[in-house]
Amino acid sequence: MSTSSIQKVSLPGLDPVGLFAVVGGALAMGVSPIFVRFASMSDVPAFASAFWRVALALPVLYAWALLEEKRAGKGPQPTFTRSSILAGFLFAGDLLLWHVAIMNTTIANATFFGTTTPIWTVLVAGLIFKEKIAASAYWGIALCVAGGAALVGQSMEINPAHVMGDLLGIGTAFFFGLYFFAVRGARLQAGAARVTFGLSLVTAPILGAAALLNGDQFLPSDGKGVAALLAMALVSHAGGQGLLAIALGRLPTVFTSLVIFIEAIGAALIAWLVLDESLGWLQALGGVLILGGIWISRPRERKERT
């Protein structure tokens, strides 16, 4: 074959396992507000429920890590690395800022500002890691952010009294954006389960200390609260964060952060099904915009000269 010919080569693009993992992780994280609400109805406040979300998932994550390493024919991988420790602190910051933001602004405002994570991932990828960002990623971010605004637009409000809460919502997105890169770095040294287990060992005591300082009640008052905490740990943390760690080992970071927008769609659908919250044409438009933004920014196969 001559050197001037062009051949299609399947370079890393839309990895199906990675895509399945990030979509599943987004949906698993999207149901967490429902579990938080059920836990609060059983007298477990936000910080305490966040602690249980991580702590109760530890045995499952450890067992998963051992199984993952056994199947790979490897010995135990490092539980703590610089990247996994950093990811643990960032995830703790993300959860704490999120709950404080909710207490200082409307849920709609906090949700919208929390959806700006892809903006931070692009800035970090371009300015710090010097990655080349495709123009399609910027269009994707614009559509996804617009979709996020449409999902909560009817409930958003501009109020000077909520400025601090709004800023904390932006801080949540910033921490979560950095978390993506920390997990990506940790995945270079260990499997998804081991990384999630290691960062959770860092996150759990931070959240526990915050709950104690806040005077939160730790134990639920009934069986429904116990079920909500277990579901939050197994579905939203072990499932959600574990699948996200798998995805970050297979997909570009910026694209992964955009797919996480499906979390907002999942949360809206669950609230409609479980809590009978209304869904209108504006929310439907928001969902379409988010899916369109993800599609536009998807990784593509490239042509390579041979």
Task: Explain how this protein is built.
71% of the residues lie in helices and 2% in strands. It has 306 residues and is mainly alpha-helical. The protein has one domain (25-299). The chain has a two-stranded antiparallel sheet with strand order 1-2. Helix 3 (46-55) crosses helix 11 (223-248).
Short key terms for the protein model shown above:
14 helices, two-stranded antiparallel sheet, mainly alpha, 306 residues, disordered N terminus
Range of strand content? under 5%
Shape: globular
Distance between the termini: 8 Å
What class would the helix/strand composition place it in? Answer: mainly alpha
Low-confidence stretches: 1-12, 302-306
Number of distinct beta strands: 2
| Count, helices | 14
Return the average pLDDT rounded to an integer. 83
Q: What composes the largest sheet? A: 2 strands, antiparallel
Tell me the layout of helices and strands.
Layout lengths: L5 E3 L7 H15 L1 H10 L4 H10 L2 H14 L10 H23 L2 H8 L2 H12 L6 H18 L10 H24 L5 H22 L9 H26 L4 H7 L2 H13 L6 H16 L6 E3 L1
Antiparallel strand pairs: 1-2
Helix pairs in contact: 1-11, 1-13, 2-11, 3-10, 3-11, 4-10, 5-6, 5-9, 5-10, 6-8, 6-9, 7-9, 7-12, 8-14, 10-11, 13-14
